[in-house]
């Protein structure tokens, strides 16, 4: 699709995407990755959290929008995924100080991060955990900071009211609750698999 390929990926991103396919870990699609890079650049995001490192595809998009002294804190329960992500960060020539990779379950790690200290939080891990990760993200964001939730359309199932399986319902409810949450200004972009955005008031 034209929009998904509008900003092409370089070899480092394509290799990280290949490793994601090898490990069976779905990576963010390029259109949503490009949108994240825009957000990170627009916010001059120096402190970013990613929930669900995978092999580092979204991490690279974020880091490329962040200023040169920005630090990405990225969490994943799978050590093998984070190992692949670290290889991608090295290939991209990123200084080790630019990334803080934390192994562990998001529900254990997120509560240890500081309130109101982050410019941007990307939620992209197990969808069952989305309601909890979104709540944690709203705690972590500074006013004016942005929450991004990847997979918000869940393969277009969220938009189809006839789809009532558990995961689709969880993701749909996350969107509904952010839409009526006075703490944020929301929008749902159709890029990638759906990128739900919410600016923290
Ligand atoms: C969709 S992939 C992330 C893709 C990545 N953001 C990218 O675009 O390259 C989801 C990741 O979440 C991780 N994950 C699953 N459950 C988790 C949990 N409870 N806590 C932390 N990470 C988890 C998986 O190991 C997997 O690497």
Automatic annotation (TrEMBL):
InterPro entries: Cation-dep_OMT, SAM-dependent_MTases_sf, SAM_O-MeTrfase. Keywords: Methyltransferase, S-adenosyl-L-methionine, Transferase. It comes from the Bacteria. The keyword S-adenosyl-L-methionine applies. PROSITE patterns: SAM_OMT_I. One of its GO terms (biological process) is methylation. The keyword Methyltransferase applies. Transmembrane segments: none annotated. One of its GO terms (molecular function) is O-methyltransferase activity. Signal peptide: none annotated. PANTHER family: O-METHYLTRANSFERASE RV1220C-RELATED, O-METHYLTRANSFERASE-RELATED. This is O-methyltransferase. The lineage of its organism: Bacteria, Bacillati, Actinomycetota, Actinomycetes, Micrococcales.
């Amino acid at each position: 699709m034209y929009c998904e390929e509008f900003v092409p990926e370089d070899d480092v991103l394509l290799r990280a995407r290949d490793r994601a396919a090898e490990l069976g870990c779905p990576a963010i699609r390029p259109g949503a990755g490009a949108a994240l890079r825009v957000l990170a650049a627009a916010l001059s995001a120096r402190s970013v959290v990613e929930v669900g490192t995978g092999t580092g595809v979204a991490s690279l998009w974020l880091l490329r929008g962040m200023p040169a002294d920005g630090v990405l804190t990225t969490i994943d329960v799978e050590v093998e995924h984070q190992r692949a992500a670290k290889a991608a960060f090295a290939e991209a020539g990123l200084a080790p100080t630019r990334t803080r990779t934390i192994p562990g379950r998001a529900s254990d790690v997120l509560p240890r991060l500081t309130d109101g200290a982050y410019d941007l939080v990307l939620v992209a891990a197990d969808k069952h955990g989305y309601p909890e990760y979104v709540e944690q993200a709203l705690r972590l964001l500074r006013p004016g900071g942005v929450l991004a939730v990847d997979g918000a359309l869940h393969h277009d199932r969220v938009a189809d009211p006839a789809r009532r399986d558990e995961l689709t319902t969880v993701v749909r409810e996350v969107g509904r609750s952010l839409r009526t949450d006075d703490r944020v200004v929301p929008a749902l972009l159709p890029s990638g698999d759906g990128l739900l955005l919410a600016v923290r008031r």
